[in-house]
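User: Could you go from structure to sequence for me? I need the amino acid at each position, not a summary. Structure tokens:
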């Protein structure tokens, strides 16, 4: 339960703002996770328009996360200045300074860390799938380049001669 604006003391205002920023970060990470999952499913069905749309949404979510993260850092530094702390304190340190909001801050921190882990895990899988798809595309391009560039050239052992391996950027265009 959040205190209303009328009952909030000025000393508690930065903590409530930090909590709001943490909630926004959690929400953005959930949106990013949803975009990553949509992207993975589009990759499985080779739906390139859906992949492109999802990629653009992921990029927008990452940009919003970076902005929120900058605001969170500024808020943490403001709280550190108010409490005369050196450096950038972590959430548990701030929670210890404000025992009345400690539970909420630590719960939000744990929820954010969980959302970040889920995004990282899903992104890792998506990177592996994309790497595999590009590897297959590279092989297909090498075979096609070999057939177009030197049709019908075989080695002494009777195997077709294949062009050298091309890079990912060359394969994709």
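Assistant: Here is the amino acid at each position, in order:
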């Amino acid at each position: 339960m959040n205190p209303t604006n009328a009952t909030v003391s000025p000393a508690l205002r930065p903590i409530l703002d930090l909590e709001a920023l943490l909630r926004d970060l959690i929400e953005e990470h959930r949106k990013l996770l949803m975009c990553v999952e949509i992207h993975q499913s589009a990759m499985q069905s080779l739906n390139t328009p859906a992949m492109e749309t999802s990629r653009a949404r992921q990029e927008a979510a990452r940009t919003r996360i970076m902005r929120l993260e900058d605001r969170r850092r500024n808020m943490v530094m403001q709280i550190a200045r108010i409490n005369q702390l050196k450096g950038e304190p972590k959430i548990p340190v701030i929670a210890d300074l404000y025992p009345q909001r400690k539970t909420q801050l630590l719960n939000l921190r744990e929820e954010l860390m969980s959302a970040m882990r889920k995004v990282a895990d899903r992104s890792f899988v998506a990177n592996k799938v994309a790497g595999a798809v590009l590897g297959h595309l590279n092989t297909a391009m090498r075979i096609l380049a070999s057939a177009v560039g030197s049709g019908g050239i075989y080695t002494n052992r009777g195997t077709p001669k294949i062009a050298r391996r091309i890079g990912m950027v060359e394969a994709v265009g």
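One structural detail worth keeping in mind: The mean pLDDT is 83.
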